[in-house]
Amino acid sequence: MIEIEACTEQEPPLPKDIPCADGTSAFGGLYPSLRAFREHVFPGVTESRWNDWRWQIANRVLDVDTVEKVLGYSRAGSMPLGKGLPMAVTPYYLGVAAVAGSTALRRCIEPTIHEFVMDPSEAEDPLGEEGHTAVPGIVHRYPDRVLFLVTDYCSTYCRYCTRSRLVGKGGRRHDTRKWKRGIEYIRANPAVRDVLLSGGDPLTMPDDRLDWLLTELRTIPHVEIIRIGSKVPAVLPQRITPELTAMLRKHHPLFISLHFAHPDELTAQTVRACAMLADAGIPLGSQTVLLKGVNDEVETMKRLMHGLLKARVRPYYLYQCDPIPGSAHFRTRVEKGLEIIQGLRGHTSGYAVPSYVIDAPGGGGKIPLLPEYYVGRDKGNVLLRNYEGRLFTYPDPEPSAVITGAALTENAQ
Ligand SMILES: *Cc1c(COP(=O)(O)O)cnc(C)c1O
């Protein structure tokens, strides 16, 4: 293992006495703006330091106490973290949560006692990724594409992370030998035409490492498209620099799947980061996990999807929350997801409607779910239900009932 970039920042992360938010702001949130948040919670940090993604990474907030001081004590004291997923949040994203003031973003980042409540149906590796691991870091579940886990590091850890068993264990480093084995695996498997880089968050890596990896993958003739999965534009938009986009655009066709949870994440800075990626010719999709108390209402989800489209991001997947250990407080009933899809389809642009999927426990892959628009068949018609719930028929005769051209000719004779 090699350390790819030592964080040399010496600045203390936070002053000893964080001015506590009192939660009585007239703005709805705790601060009127991110700037007010920065000046209050990180006094002395200039705007240019704040906008340096390396500063954001070096100054991540890593303890629950600080989150509670900043966002207000809403729970009975701080909670000791278990051995599982560590806590980390960028100063920027903590600021977004503070400015928004709602509990939605807070739920995504703050560990709570609920994480210790284990349900027997939950599992460390609910998607059976280990069973489909071809070589370390390569999950090969579908015939023509692989998931390539290139780092276990994220700038901010989502409490519902599907890979909570893996991420945040090794710091900001990767194992080059493991990368090379992964690349060799892909090179040796001509059926792999689509490589999905994930982790961890690949966009937390320095430009030159990512460039090296993409360049290697581009030497493989059968790799048609490369995708990157990332939450960086939402939690660390400062990372999207002109240098990064100039590097990425060398590796087309390149797609990026962004992770968004809530419309409050769509700040001006995040929208600008998406615009820079889109201007580099990168098609952007979004992935959203359906989360209780965060986005489990049609109106919230609609606002998120509309906001994403305005940011030139096409909603791609809505995921039922994976049953990782201690995630019951995040899971909604599946009917909730169906209700949300039903509340979107027909009521708004088709582009705003993601596919609702369950990644089947045990390694079944993503299975799409749709509200029942296909009602059934009545002899030569199929019965369909439209978005308003009204029934329609579509003529779809049995093959034997179709009058063919030949039959017509016979009748004429
Ligand atoms: C989600 C996933 C993919 C990509 O699936 P698409 O439906 O093509 O986006 C590929 N491999 C694994 C293991 C996955 O979990």
UniProtKB/TrEMBL annotation:
Q: Which cofactor does it need?
A: pyridoxal 5'-phosphate; [4Fe-4S] cluster
- Gene Ontology MF annotations: 4 iron, 4 sulfur cluster binding; L-lysine 2,3-aminomutase activity; metal ion binding
Ordered alphabetically, the record's keywords are:
4Fe-4S, Iron, Iron-sulfur, Isomerase, Metal-binding, Pyridoxal phosphate, S-adenosyl-L-methionine
Q: Known Gene3D superfamilies for this protein?
A: 6.10.140.1170, 6.20.120.40, Aldolase class I
Cited Pfam families: LAM_C, Radical_SAM
Spell out the SUPFAM superfamilies in the cross-references. Radical SAM enzymes
Q: Does the keyword Iron apply?
A: yes
Q: Where exactly are the transmembrane stretches of this chain?
A: none
Chain positions recorded as [4Fe-4S] cluster binding sites: C154, C158, C161
Signal peptide location: none
Question: Where is the PTM N6-(pyridoxal phosphate)lysine found along the chain?
Answer: K366
User: What reaction is this protein's catalytic activity?
Assistant: L-lysine = (3S)-3,6-diaminohexanoate
Q: What is its EC number?
A: 5.4.3.2
Domain Radical SAM core residues, every copy? 140-352
Stated family: Belongs to the radical SAM superfamily. KamA family.
Identification of the protein by name:
L-lysine 2,3-aminomutase
What is the native source organism of this protein?
A: Pseudodesulfovibrio alkaliphilus
Q: What is the lineage of its organism?
A: Bacteria, Pseudomonadati, Thermodesulfobacteriota, Desulfovibrionia, Desulfovibrionales
